[in-house]
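Weekly puzzle thread! Below is a chain. First person to post its structure in token form gets bragging rights.
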Amino acid sequence: MRNAPLHQLGRDAEARPVVPSCPPQVPMPQLFADAWQRYDGGDVPGYEELTTNRYRRR
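Winning reply:
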């Protein structure tokens, strides 16, 4: 996790956000334009089967 500028990396395995939300790293108009260009070019989401571990009990 070397490239995690918006997260604090502690001694444990969890990454904690520095800010309470996840701000985009580009201006919103640019983010929208890039997303629209990808959509218009035929890019579709690639869904994968994920295997995860539960780390918190309810």
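Puzzle host: Confirmed. Bonus trivia for everyone else. Residues 39 and 46 are 13 Å apart (CA to CA).
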